Amino acid sequence: MDDIIDLTEQQLNAENISRSVILPSCGAVAMFIGTTRDNFDGKKVVKLEYEAYETMAKKKMKEICQEIRSKWKLGRIAIIHRLGEVPITEASVVIAISSPHRKEALEAVNEAIYALKAKVPIWKKEIYENHDSAWKQNQECAWSNGSKEKVFIKTS
């Protein structure tokens, strides 16, 4: 089954992504939509910026699809991540997975988002109201050694 993997600077359309995984043989579609929130740790966030090592990121996203397919009977998988600027309330990532039954789809989506955060070389920079910014590292990242989130702050 062909999985849908993409990195794009375009606004993500969750409805279209959801439709892309629907199959007649599947009775469930589970989704995760990660959106930009306007705050972090008491600071006002005005937008996020994402960068990726695109070739490696797509390779790792395909590996995640293979890993979750080995655990559950699934229909289609879509993992789409946005790059560049992502304004407040807009989606930065959408994962949609279809399966014959809801349990498999829900479990697969949960595993997919954690694996994406842990394994895929995509970096997030938060831009704050005062024009400071901070590159954020996911706690799930293999290179974080299980420590608390590391923050690298660049001031204007």
From TrEMBL:
Keyword Lyase: no
Binding residues annotated for substrate, in chain numbering: H101, R102, K117, K124, K125, E126
E.C. number: 2.8.1.12
Coiled-coil region(s): none
Keywords annotated in UniProt: Cytoplasm, Molybdenum cofactor biosynthesis, Transferase
Enzyme class (EC, first level): transferase
GO biological process, one term: Mo-molybdopterin cofactor biosynthetic process
Pfam families to which the protein is assigned, alphabetical: MoaE
Any single Gene Ontology cellular-component annotation: molybdopterin synthase complex
Pathway listed: Cofactor biosynthesis; molybdopterin biosynthesis
Molecular function, one GO term: molybdopterin synthase activity
CDD domains hit by this protein: MoaE
Keyword Ligase among UniProt keywords: no
Subcellular localization(s) per the UniProt record: Cytoplasm
Gene3D superfamilies: Molybdopterin biosynthesis MoaE subunit
Reaction(s) the record says it catalyses: 2 [molybdopterin-synthase sulfur-carrier protein]-C-terminal-Gly-aminoethanethioate + cyclic pyranopterin phosphate + H2O = molybdopterin + 2 [molybdopterin-synthase sulfur-carrier protein]-C-terminal Gly-Gly + 2 H(+)
UniProt family annotation: Belongs to the MoaE family. MOCS2B subfamily.
HAMAP family linked to this entry: MOC2B
Function: Catalytic subunit of the molybdopterin synthase complex, a complex that catalyzes the conversion of precursor Z into molybdopterin. Acts by mediating the incorporation of 2 sulfur atoms from thiocarboxylated MOCS2A into precursor Z to generate a dithiolene group.
Quaternary structure (record): Heterotetramer; composed of 2 small (MOCS2A) and 2 large (MOCS2B) subunits.
Protein name: Molybdopterin synthase catalytic subunit
Organism: Acanthosepion pharaonis
